[in-house]
Amino acid sequence: MSEFKSGFVAVLGRTNVGKSTLVNLLVGEKVAATANKVQTTRTAIKGIVNRENSQIIFIDTPGIHKPKTKLNETMIETSFSTISEIDIILFVIEATSNEIGRGDMRILEKIKESHKKAILIINKIDLVKKECLLKLISLYQKEYPFEAVIPVSSLKEKYKETILCEIEKNLKPGPAYYSVEEYTDQTMRQLAEEIIREKALNLLQDEVPHGIYVEVEKMKLRKNKQHEQIYDIIATIYCLRNSHKGIIIGKDGNMLKRIGQSARIEMEKSFGTKVNLKTWVKVKEDWQDDPSIIKRFKLK
User: Fold this and answer.
1) Model's pTM, two decimal places?
2) For the purposes of burial, counting CB atoms within 10 Å of the CB of 138, is it exposed (0-12), middle (13-18) or buried (19 or more)?
């Protein structure tokens, strides 16, 4: 029988290249919020893959971007601080560039400093001609000795086994760090917050999403009259301005109802129980620079 292997894999890349989608695909469960918006991931989220001869722990990191607030600085610090703790780096880039951009080069420099094993994932290859893709692969291979380069047309199920096998091949023998039943290190409360935030990100207009964070203030399991288990959850969506509060609530409270309903359906699916969700909206103008809030986004 093969020796059991294990290890930690950091997923790095610029904002909006598909890191969270990739982690959810590889784990086979929803562990990270996904939205077609930059800076969706704010903290390092772990997703656990249990295979017959290995346990792979993925760390989905915030995308690299130009910091404008203390929150942005913390997110970038979180991304780069994971490198020293991990065994393999999955570097996700887009096929649509014909050069190594400033953001990708910044990540490459950090990978070079680490001397860690790295696998390059090139996403969206269906959008470029083959010769452009080959040129891009050549550019990156000149910069670093990647263990493998895996081009993907979009992050679909068919690429899952290829990527997992390549990672497993490069892991060292080691123990299982988590129970086989676990697929994330997040608490139920954190998962609930992520689900609500994701639904808000996907439903709200562009100017609002980066200025929100969600806090679950109450989460209690009880039995209803039919003796079914039900979670009572009270959550607050914090935003930066009164005008944002109006957009989040919407006309006659319709937007907040849509966010709440969408989040409740996903929670019931994820938690396997009924959910009674109440959401509120409050304005907190300086939260992105508030140390007591920012510490929630630091690497644990």
Assistant:
1) 0.63
2) exposed
Check which CATH number belongs to the domain holding 268 and give it: 3.30.300.20
- Cα 245 from Cα 276, distance rounded (Å): 22
Which parts of the chain are beta strand (E)? 5-13, 45-51, 54-60, 88-94, 117-123, 148-151, 172-173, 213-223, 229-239, 274-283
Range of the domain at 109: 5-173
Q: Please, which residues have CB within 8 angstroms of residue 289's CB and are 6 or more apart in sequence?
A: 69, 70, 71
Locate 53 and state its tokens: 């001869």
Q: Could you report the per-residue pLDDT of 128-171, keeping only the tens digit for each? A: 999 999 999 999 999 999 999 999 986 678 899 999 999 999 99
d(CA 259, CA 275): 14
pLDDT tens for 22-80 read: 888 888 876 665 544 334 444 456 788 899 999 998 887 664 444 455 545 555 555 45
